[in-house]
Amino acid sequence: MVSTHTSGNKHSGTKYLPITNDPQISPNQQLLPLTAKVINQDFLEIGGCDVITLVKQFGSPLYILDETTLRNSCSRYRDTFQHYYQGESQVLYASKAWSCLAVCMIAASEGLGIDVVSAGELHTAITAGVKPTLIYFHGNNKSLTELVFALEVGCNIVVDNWHELNTLINLAKERLLSGIPIMLRLAPGIECHTHEYIRTGNLDSKFGFNPNDLDELFRLIIQQKVLNCVGLHAHIGSQIFECQPHRDLAGVMTQWLNKARENGLSINQLNVGGGLGIKYTESDDPPSIEEWSKAICEVVQKACKASNLPLPKLLCEPGRSLIATACVTAYTIGSYKIVPGIRTYLAIDGGMSDNPRTITYQSLYTSVVANRMSAPVTETVTIAGKHCESGDIVIKHAHLPQVEPGDILVIMGTGAYNYSMASNYNRVPRPAAIIVANSEANLILQRETLQDLIQKDCLPERLRS
């Protein structure tokens, strides 16, 4: 249930709109998890669990992950690629969106592989039981330790640059290894309409080889028996609302595949990245998972047919569109401040330490009051975090009913890049995370304690006297 108002301070007592958690609609096109509903007229329920009761039990702030929505998104990607692509396909979960044991296990149980970008994410995926052959290790500056770890694990390594390529060759020769599975990341030079910081596909990017170096790159790899180049990778950005840039990308990558074969390199995988956007506000209108997947499958098949190429194994690596909508964050409302003629600040018990996306990307969110779901919308307020930072604003213009301290505010779409980017700014402990399903709630991440905050602190002996 969300407000119909989008601006201004005058309200007509409009009530929230009905929740549109239609299982036929792609989860990334909805604001709340698929299981969200209102019980007893006023109370928000997710996964069969009353949000107010959850906060009483687990505290706030609290990440609430709906297992049904996450599994639905995973299966939609998996099934759509299998339906529209005539060759082999593999969906990977971009775990940078939210890496923890429970999430990785669920993704793997739905047949997905895992995309990792650090030793920590790789360790999490391995510990969760993901097969190394289904793990793809990305990153523009993998450390020597991380590359050694990847070699020991036996996962696929997505090579990003010349330095990494040469380092990997030397490591393999030192260890008498051969046939190391690698992919090559390329910068395709494709622009997309998204935030500057989450555009990764244009040529002016820290990621990927320059496509102009392809011939030289292919020649070097052919000479190196220690490497087995299984595929090509590209990624053009995040929170994208258009299918055309991905159609363009799929077409460009098929041309690269053809060039590889002309150079005598047999490559059989194409990874087109991820980047499909989600609905954070009523005005957002992203393509569905099905529309995005179908567009890519069709372009790759058409391009391969035109070039008389066998169909490669087609990979994609969604993150945000898999998990963002599946999670909400519940906060307890505290103080408020009225600045006459300007705005009303409504403070919550979290903020930029558990959700840094607003201050980082100027991201927009939608909110509801979990214990006043049927109350009329009468106020426009600014949701402020508790941190000692003027920019700690979670929502600048939130449209809510009248609230009181102690009410529970729910921010939607917080499953991606919230916990994974969380910090201990102001020495605030990171929140707990729970997973809900079939009226049952279980911890998947414990709330940090004050003792946790100083656990790694060290005091030199000279300071103790």
TrEMBL record:
The active site is at residue 388. Gene3D superfamilies: Alanine racemase (3.20.20.10), Lyase, Ornithine Decarboxylase, Chain A, domain 1 (2.40.37.10). It comes from Richelia intracellularis HH01. The keyword Amino-acid biosynthesis applies. CDD domains: PLPDE_III_DapDC. Substrate binds at residues 320, 357, 361, 389, 417. Pfam families: Orn_Arg_deC_N (PF02784). This is Diaminopimelate decarboxylase. It comes from the Bacteria. The modification N6-(pyridoxal phosphate)lysine is found at residue 96. Pyridoxal 5'-phosphate binds at residues 275, 317-320, 417.
